[in-house]
Amino acid sequence: xxxxxxxxxxxxxxxxxxxxxxxxxxxxxxxxxxxxxxxxxxxxxxxxxxxxxxxxxxxxxxxxxxxxxxxxxxxxxxxxxxxxxxxxxxxxxxxxxxxxxxxxxxxxxxxxxxxxxxxxxxxxxxxxxxxxxxxxxxxxxxxxxxxxxxxxxxxxxxxxxxxxxxxxxxxxxxxxxxxxxxxxxxxxxxxxxxxxxxxxxxxxxxxxxxxxxxxxxxxxxxxxxxxxxxxxxxxxxxxxxxxxxxxxxxxxxxxxxxxxxxxxxxxxxxxxxxxxxxxxxxxxxxxxxxxxxxxxxxxxxxxxxxxxxxxxxxxxxxxxxxxxxxxxxxxxxxxxxxxx
Length: 340
Fold this sequence. Notes:
About 40% of the residues lie in helices and about 25% in strands. The protein is α/β, with parallel strands linked by helices.
């Protein structure tokens, strides 16, 4: 198993910016916040820090800003985390990098405006998506769905003894909407898990509800759960991963559609299981029209994020003009030396 675990704690969603950091550092003894207006600088420092801890189990926090940035790194077996002040409100220590790298903060107004336009587009997309869900919800056999869920959970937890402890749920995302488009780290997350269930279905076919029931049952058994929320609708769940059970189940539909490739991986199609036969065909025209409107809103949202990203990138270039590799190396050395 790789000692690197990648996931997101932040995301650009239909309800704006979301942040799930707290559940992931709740028990970390040393939370070091890196303070500076340049996210590229903080990312460079975080990357250097990860190399110093390359023998440890590292949790790399990907950034909703795009593939060139990190939100932080958690070294859980050392109970230390290094985090961008943009996402961390409180920590045990704050390192003000402006002492070593003086910088005047750039005006964020235009970037913020374009980002809000992206959120507005995603919100419009969610309203349209709700229309799509309604079609399938009205064709669902709820009694059978409940029975199916109960049987699945019973089989999953068969012979699993309840632990006399309060389980912890780590809330995360496995991807989000960025300047690079809609991205995810699903392959990296499932690669180390042997029992993987790929949920197929449509909007409103009960995928999230099914997974929430599974997560609740595992937590009720005293088993820690990784709960990955949707980066479009932040109230919806896209993945449940339970390392103690070597188990993962996730929404494997567009825009994060995958198919089993290894032994032990299974498809669970909730459209086939829960929805009246012929629904796709019966409502084909309405579904196609609604899907087109939904995808148009999402495309607009990504477009605004890209525009914001272009301005943001120019600002970051200005911050980094006078920064050298030696400057970063020296700063990382000072950070390590200052740790309690």
